[in-house]
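Before going further, learn to read the protein records used in this course. The integers have meaning only within a learned vocabulary of local backbone shapes. The record below shows the convention in full.
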Amino acid sequence: MWLSSVRMVQVTFTRAKPIPLLAGPYGKGAKAMQYSRILESCLETKSISCLIDDLQSRSTPHAGTAPAKVKQDVIRALRRLSEEERYPLVLALCQQEDPSAQEIGALCIADFYLQYPKVVNVWLYKLADSENWEVREWVASACGHLLEMHFPDYYVVMSDWSHDAYENIRRAVVLAVMYAGRSRKAEFAKPLLDLLEPLLHDHAKYVMDNLGPFAIGSALIKYYPTEVLQRLNQWVSSEKEQVRWNVAMAFTAAEAAAFASEAMPIFAVLAHDPHPYVQKAWKKAMRNIEKRTSVLIPLENMV
């Protein structure tokens, strides 16, 4: 459904709030000025090939993409253009094979969600399943921003993606929830946790690695401690061992260890879980708590 063709319709432009970037332009000195002139020339001529060549010339051997600050500089330059000028350039960047171009395109196409929601959804979906891990990270950031800024509408999109056949798409939902949770908006807590709940059953490693120990244990418990602890207390009683594994793995994160005292009822259940799979995760969580806190977990009294 998400990769079906989309007919673009001419509409009146309404300015959407762009995704925030790190402050400050890229670099200083003669080399930075040279890069700046090249970038300005590429945008003045509306030349995508010029822009790609410039990005590739600055790609690092390790990542194979341009440094984040370089890409942010390009995004700032694009956003100085009028929306009518910018939109076809952004769309063209999404269509490139170059990962730096795709990353820039993913962040910038999200600026047009109010005008072209179907086009934005199609391109973010396509790029969320990229073979390049960096592209997937930038797409997840764009999705998180859209979830925060257009919550009721984009929540439906993320809910749909959470049941997708491709694990990269489902994993994008996990990170989008985490990024949207950074807002700490109280009204987001319950629906964000509801959005993650079906994914607790997911056995795909890429989803698992980013759910319990990362999105929940490293982030959401910090943003919404009361709500997350309440939900973990519910989830730990699930009949599904994969759900209980996610609960245990949440406490392998440094941030979650800080809530060990409040989580004693959860630990009482995990301590007596009969499944080795869950017990292994629980023992890892205990080692993390012992390493980072002075909280004593009285296992002998947990019945």
About this structure: The two ends are 49 Å apart (CA to CA). The chain has a mean pLDDT of 90. Residues 14 and 115 are 7 Å apart (CA to CA).
